[in-house]
Protein: Fructose-1,6-bisphosphatase class 1
Organism: Aliishimia ponticola
Amino acid sequence: MSADQITFREFLLSQRSQHKLDKDLIFLMEDIATSCRIISHQIRGGAFAGRLGATTSTNVQGETQKQLDVIANDVFVRHCSNCGRVAALVSEEVDEVYWLKDKPEAGDYLVYFDPLDGSSNLDVNLSVGSIFSISQLPTAIDATDDRSVLRVGAEQISAGYSVYGPSTALVITTGNGVHGFTHQQGTGEFRLTFPDMTILEATSEFAINASRYTLWDQPVKRYFDECIRGKDGPREKTFNMRWTASMVAEVHRILIRGGVFLYPRDAGNNADGGKLRLMYEANPMALIVEQAGGFASTGIERILDVQPNSHHQRVPVILGSKEEVAVLERYHRES
Ligand SMILES: O=P(O)(O)OC[C@H]1O[C@](O)(COP(=O)(O)O)[C@@H](O)[C@@H]1O
Ligand SMILES: [Mg+2]
Ligand SMILES: [Mg+2]
């Protein structure tokens, strides 16, 4: 371990002095790191403790909840409630907004999270993760009004995700670049192993669930067909494809070696507006991708500019290497 692999706390304290981070934000981010550490432990021991498999309950998305979805949600709620500046929590696994304060003040935090992302991978031992986003209330509000959590993505003050894969990683931004940490067995510390992560502008690797091909709109079909035609096609280069069914794993791969990830709105999810959720999947990942020099779009507009109309709203997602996202936006404009 080299000396510069500083701990998560040391890193946040250095960001505090450089970028005037609020001390309460540091405490909250440490509570989130603790949640990820505990969830990582719960997942890795899942098979022994009978924590794999589904519950009998469904969440607001109409999905059957995995046992670990519920466990991870409870861990986030317990730890994020420690910080006295948190006004409300919004979780993928819970219908209503969790208000922690009756009279929230200006500047209080709003924490949005997907406690377990890629949960269909759990029982087959593939990578999953957690995603979080933090915004602030612009003004004090007299009563707990759910509309006040509908903040535009560009207002986020911090976002991040963890991946529970071969190792446990935690990747964050506070608006000052993107930095990745790896969980160190033994000490339990998250140590800085990927400082200043950046996304390659050009790539020849894309990720999409190709089994939905017949459901796609023309711009996405055109993009996919051209990638598949490779060197002999209009793109004149060979493309590789990946699909892990876990957004966190896709985004982590893109931060490390570039690429583009798509979950478009299609004939199958059109009524819902898409598959992935704006407030705790698309927005945090869009902030991270943009902070790393990539771009995130619905195909039509920048994800961070989407005005939310519900805290479980879904949107089309196209994110990653700038050049490929630009091609896809152009195909949407031309269609
Ligand atoms: O089942 P599909 O179509 O492959 O969808 C996979 C996508 O759904 C998700 O699993 C949705 O997230 P959750 O597991 O948190 O519900 C994404 O992580 C992933 O990109
Ligand atoms: Mg998810
Ligand atoms: Mg989830």
Notes: The chain is about 30% helix and 25% strand.
